[in-house]
Amino acid sequence: MPYMPPGARKEKIEDYAAVCRPVEWGEKKKRSLDGTRISLCVGSIPSANGGEVELEGTASVRKGHVVICYFQGNGSSPPPRLPLLSQVLKLIHARAPSNVQYTLVALAYRGYWTSSGRASQSGIELDAQAMLKWVAETYISPDTDIRLVLWGQSIGAGVASTAAATFISGQQDLPLAGLVMETPFTSVKSMLLALYPQRWLPYQYLHPFLWNHWDSGAALRTIAEAGTRPKLLLMPATRDEVVPPIEIQKLESICRELKLDYERKNVIGALHTEATTRREGQDAVANFIVNATTDD
What we know:
This protein is of the alpha/beta class. The protein has one domain (8-185, 219-293): Rossmann fold. It has helices spanning 17-20, 82-95, 121-139, 155-170, 188-195, 216-224, 245-258, 279-293; strands spanning 24-31, 37-44, 64-71, 100-108, 145-153, 176-182, 231-235, 262-264. The protein has an eight-stranded mixed β-sheet with strand order 1-2-4-3-5-6-7-8, sandwiched between helices. Strand 1 and strand 2 (37-44) form a beta hairpin. Helix 2 packs across helix 8. The chain is globular and about 60 Å long.
């Protein structure tokens, strides 16, 4: 839903700059794997010596670098989410080792914000891989210990898990340290069956005709087969009015079955879009990212 709310595609980063400080954001335009023009919001806190925010992978004064790639939910665009993402980034910096720099990159799917094209699962999968490819090309350097974290909210958790499964199979130079799944569901088919369990309704039989089939369960199984597994955070909202509770139970069961290193954090009383608007959820994401990217 890239056009909801009205005016979502005309949002501007500068309109949110004041509330995001000291995090500084910039827009980066790239080409997806099929040539479609896509946009990224790239943000970080300037280094203590007064250096500028790193948008092009310039040399960092820090020894470590963690890049967090964010995949949004179904509606709106990245700029209105920047204050929330900035708050999490500030919490991370307050708790992380001083020799580590953190950069957050938010993808505007094709058809969203200033990205061209029309949204589709196959296209968004290409966009996600293009963003991860750009991160590797931009930030990998011989003198930097770089680590990657993927963070997806709602349908973005499906995008993030699918991207992680694809990326982890082919990219060895950029270690995937963590995967955050905020208010996730197992798959679109699973959601359809959960929302319409009645056998006398036709909906549960129509899943072969769905346009999108995001399947985090299948993605987790692919991740489990990888040599180096990332840590996982499952973060449901206890009053989620969109995703039924059975979905997080299914994902947790899959994680246990596959012996994945995961933790679950319930955000008590939160609705579907409120998990990380609350301090409890922000703390959970920040703590997880610091722990997942810090050596024991």
